[in-house]
C-alpha cells in the first residue's frame, strides 16, 4: 500500500549555474517528491488514528488526502513519475474515505457518495497499476472494484460491466503478486464466473472452471462452489436485484 513512499526519496544532485532550465526542472522534481512524501505522511498519520473512537476523523483525513493529491496532481502534471504517485495517493484517499464512511443501507445519497469515491479509486489506480504491470495498490483496487460490482448490481448502474472487468483485472494482479495463495485464486475464479455470466463470455467461464478444478477441497469456499454450480445449471452466479 505504501510502494509510492519508497519511490519518493528526495534527491539533491548539483548542476551547473549555467543551466537555469535544468535547475528549474530539478527544483520542480524535488518539490514534487517532497509533496508525495508529505501526503504519504498524511496517510500514515490517518492510519495511526483509533478506528473504534475516531472513525469519522479517519474518513475526514482521507478526504483531505484525496483533495490534496488531486490538486497537486494538476500542479505536477508535467512530471510523469510524480503525477503517477499522486494519482495513487488520490486513489488511496478516495478508497479509505469510502471505507470509513459507512452509510446505512437505506441511505441512498450516502451510498451514492460511496460509489463516487470507489469509482474515483479505480479510475485513479487502474492506469497506474497497468503502467507498472500490476505493482502497487492492487489491494485497494481490488477492494474498490469488488464493492462497485455489488453496488452496480444493487442500483442497476450502467457502469457495471466496466467495474466487473476491473474486478477481474484486480484479482489477476493479486494472484500475480501472491501466486501461492489459494484464497487469491478463489477470488479470481469467483470474479471470472460473475463477469463471464454478465458478459456472456464462455472463455472466462472456462478459465474459472479450470481454476476451480485445481482448488484443494480444504481451500474451496462455499461461495465459489455455489457460483460454479449455478453457472453449470444455467443460472446467474450472483443475486439479481430483488432476489
Commentary on this structure:
The protein is 74% helix and 0% strand. The two termini are 36 Å apart. By secondary structure, the protein is an all-alpha fold. It has helices at 3-6, 20-47, 51-75, 80-99, 108-131, 138-155, 160-177, 182-199, 202-214, 222-232.
End-to-end Cα distance: 36 Å
DSSP summary: helix tally: 10
Give the integer mean of the pLDDT values.
Answer: 91
* Structural Rg: 21 Å
Largest sheet: none
Residues in helices, as a percent range: over 70%
| Poorly predicted runs of 5 or more residues | 4-18
Q: Encode the helix/strand succession as letters.
A: HHHHHHHHHH
Shape: globular
Strand segment tally: 0
Strand pairing plus helix content: what structural class? mainly alpha
Quote the beta fraction: under 5%
Brief synopsis:
By secondary structure, this protein is mainly α.
List keywords for this structure.
mainly alpha, 0% strand, globular
How is the secondary structure organized here?
Elements: H1 3-6, H2 20-47, H3 51-75, H4 80-99, H5 108-131, H6 138-155, H7 160-177, H8 182-199, H9 202-214, H10 222-232
Amino acid at each position: 500500500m505504501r510502494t509510492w513512499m519508497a519511490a519518493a526519496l528526495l534527491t539533491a544532485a548539483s548542476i551547473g549555474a549555467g543551466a537555469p532550465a535544468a535547475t528549474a526542472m530539478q527544483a520542480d522534481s524535488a518539490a514534487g517528491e517532497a509533496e508525495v512524501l508529505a501526503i504519504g505522511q498524511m496517510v500514515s498519520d490517518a492510519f495511526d488514528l483509533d478506528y473504534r473512537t475516531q472513525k469519522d476523523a479517519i474518513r475526514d483525513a482521507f478526504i483531505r488526502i484525496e483533495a490534496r493529491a488531486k490538486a497537486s496532481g494538476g500542479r505536477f502534471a508535467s512530471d510523469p513519475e510524480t503525477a503517477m504517485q499522486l494519482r495513487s495517493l488520490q486513489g488511496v484517499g478516495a478508497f479509505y474515505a469510502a471505507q470509513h464512511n459507512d452509510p446505512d443501507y437505506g441511505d441512498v445519497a450516502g451510498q451514492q457518495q460511496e460509489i463516487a469515491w470507489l469509482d474515483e479509486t479505480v479510475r485513479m489506480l487502474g492506469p497506474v497499476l497497468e503502467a507498472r504491470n500490476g505493482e502497487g495498490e492492487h489491494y485497494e483496487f481490488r477492494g474498490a472494484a469488488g464493492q462497485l460490482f455489488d453496488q452496480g448490481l444493487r442500483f442497476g448502474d450502467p457502469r457495471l460491466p466496466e467495474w466487473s472487468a476491473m474486478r477481474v483485472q484486480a484479482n489477476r494482479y493479486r494472484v500475480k503478486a501472491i501466486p501461492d495463495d489459494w484464497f487469491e485464486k478463489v477470488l479470481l475464479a469467483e470474479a471470472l464466473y460473475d463477469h463471464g455470466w454478465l458478459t456472456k463470455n464462455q472463455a472466462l467461464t472456462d478459465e474459472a472452471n479450470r481454476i476451480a478444478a485445481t482448488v484443494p477441497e480444504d481451500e474451496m469456499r462455499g461461495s465459489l462452489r455455489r457460483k460454479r454450480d449455478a453457472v453449470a445449471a444455467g443460472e446467474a452466479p450472483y443475486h439479481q436485484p430483488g432476489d
